[in-house]
Design brief:
Blueprint (H helix, E strand, L loop, with lengths): L2 E5 L8 E4 L5 E4 L16 H5 L4 E2 L1 E3 L11 H4 L15 E2 L2 E4 H5 L6 H16 L3 E4 L3 H9 L11 E2 L4 E2 L10 E7 L17 E8 L2 E7 L5 H13 L8 E5 L22 H8 L2 E9 L16 H10 L4 E4 L12 E6 L2 E5 L1 E2 L2 E2 L6 E2 L1
Parallel strand pairs: 3-5, 4-6, 5-7, 7-8, 8-9, 13-14, 14-15, 15-16
Antiparallel strand pairs: 1-2, 1-17, 2-3, 10-11, 11-12, 12-13, 17-18, 18-21, 19-20
Helix pairs in contact: 6-7
């Protein structure tokens, strides 16, 4: 039994594909940022994923364009005929935060279409999970003639363990839902705060491998995650073998201050990076190449990269647009099995031989 997870070079945008041994496929975000400019090194995500007829689960962590771009052209959506047919890829189950359902001011047409699909599936009672339940969601459900019972609408709260009794992906995978918290998940002003955050645990015989998915969640939410998990006896769900660095290696995933040379994380984020990183763990930043200059306000921030390396006790740091080189970035794929995680070299959608050494 084994699984693979692939992270795609999309600039400051994110998408990752997790494929299970039972052929189930989970896609975390979709942002096709590629252009026809010959100098554009970003991968054509539509072409890369077009061979997939469907995904068992598609998770949209939050509504920003760098996590949804191109979705309205790529996926089949049930709520309107114009988004159907023509080789579009089907979504068997859609996972979104309640903030996505409630959003009124959206950044893009792609996000609007996803929101409409989420509402359609909620109204018709199929193929959706909604994360967190602020008071505004209760009001929306009532206004649409729907039950406010959580189980009737597949509403998932922070602190929930989603095992094979609560999903259709088989017994080799479970999800511990860390966020969003209901207090952050209304029609949020900061759309990063209600990002879906979860530990994904993969099982291979007696070995468990943990992937920490973060979206663009800020340090303040990560602090709540660490404190609440530790205080509620759930600290085992903070461990990670692969850490999906939030917000394209912005300092905001660490602290409110960038720092002069190196960002100093909050105490909670320090613990998350240092205490809960397992032997052989790696960190993946879905971002542009990290410049050595400290002048740029936009991520990635060199001060943040230095912090991730330092406070994780020198765990491996990989930026998607730097792998294997800045001039020719390729998808980063890890095989996960009983022996841990092993990076595999990828050319387009085909794996080349000569695997990298084992980690873990």
């Amino acid at each position: 039994m084994s699984q693979t997870i692939t992270f795609y070079p999309l600039g400051n945008a994110e998408s990752a594909l997790l494929e299970l041994s039972n052929s189930k496929k989970i896609l975390f975000d979709f942002a096709d940022t590629h252009t026809d400019d010959l100098s554009d090194k970003r991968i054509n995500l539509t072409r890369e994923l077009k061979g997939k007829k469907s995904f068992d689960v598609v998770v949209f962590s939050h509504a920003h364009e760098d996590h949804v771009k191109g979705a309205k052209e790529f996926f089949e959506f049930d709520h309107a005929a114009k988004y159907q047919g023509d080789g579009r890829v089907k979504i068997k189950e859609l996972w979104v935060s309640s903030a996505f359902v409630l959003e009124k001011s959206l950044d893009s047409e792609d996000a609007r279409v996803i929101r409409q699909e989420a509402r359609h599936r909620l109204r018709n009672g199929y193929g959706i999970k909604v994360f967190a339940k602020p008071d505004e969601l209760d009001a929306w459900l009532e206004a649409n003639g729907l039950s406010t019972d959580d189980s009737a609408n597949s509403i998932i709260h922070a602190g929930t363990l989603l095992d094979d009794s609560l999903h259709n992906l088989g017994n080799e995978i479970q999800f511990f839902v860390h966020a969003p918290f209901s207090e952050d998940a209304g029609d949020a002003t900061d759309k990063n705060e209600p990002s879906i955050v979860m530990q994904v645990r993969l099982k291979n015989m007696t070995r468990e491998t943990n992937i920490f998915i973060t979206g663009d969640t800020p340090h303040s939410v990560l602090a709540k995650i660490a404190n609440r998990s530790e205080n509620n006896g759930n600290k085992e769900y903070l461990y990670w073998d692969i850490y999906d660095i939030p917000h394209h290696c912005s300092y905001t995933g660490l602290s409110g201050e960038k720092g002069d040379y190196r960002t100093t994380p909050t105490d909670e984020v320090k613990r998350l990076l240092g205490t809960y990183a397992r032997q052989g763990a790696v960190m993946i930043a879905s971002c542009k190449p990290v410049a050595d200059s400290a002048d740029d306000d936009q991520p990635p921030h060199i001060e943040a990269k230095r912090a991730y390396t330092h406070f994780s006790n020198n765990k491996e740091f990989v930026a998607t647009m730097e792998h294997p080189s800045k001039t020719a970035p390729k998808p980063i794929r890890y095989k996960i099995d009983y022996f841990g995680i092993q990076q595999e070299q990828v050319k387009s959608s085909n794996i080349i031989t000569s695997p990298a050494p084992r980690a873990g």
